[in-house]
Design brief:
CATH class of the largest domain: Mainly Beta
Mean pLDDT: 81
CATH architecture of the largest domain: Single Sheet
Largest sheet: 3 strands, antiparallel
Number of helices: 2
Bound molecules: zinc ion
Helix content: 10-25%
Radius of gyration: 16 Å
Distance between the termini: 48 Å
CATH topology of the largest domain: Rubrerythrin, domain 2
Length: 108
């Protein structure tokens, strides 16, 4: 039997899960990506769908448009509140996605 193959949503590296292990997984379980160390929560199993939770090397971060504080984002598509100045806004998610594979040196 083949391993179940999926892709890390953070680093886009393939992740292979042995079938015996896959059979014991439940929705809501958290895996760790061996490549980037991201924690990946299982959203659904058939087909397998993973979402990054905190702890990954580069998760999702957006900059507050008001004070430029860096904010860690948990769920894509939701508005976020800056924990520095309290400003609530909806990030441009297309930009967050596009940045992932490119250089991430926007912090100077
Ligand atoms: Zn990864
Ligand atoms: Zn702010």
């Amino acid at each position: 039997m083949d391993d179940v193959e999926t892709v890390c949503p953070v680093c886009h590296d393939p992740i292979y899960i042995p079938v015996e292990e896959y059979a014991e997984l439940l929705e809501g379980d958290v895996l760790e990506c061996e490549n980037c160390g991201a924690y990946l929560e299982i959203l659904s199993l058939d087909p397998i769908e993973l979402v990054a939770v905190e702890g990954g090397e580069d998760g999702f971060y957006v900059l507050c448009p008001r004070c430029e504080h860096e904010i860690a984002v948990e769920a894509e598509g939701e508005s976020v509140t800056c924990d520095n100045c309290g400003y609530t806004f909806t990030p441009d998610w297309s930009e967050v996605e596009a940045d992932e594979d490119d250089e991430r040196d926007y912090r100077n």
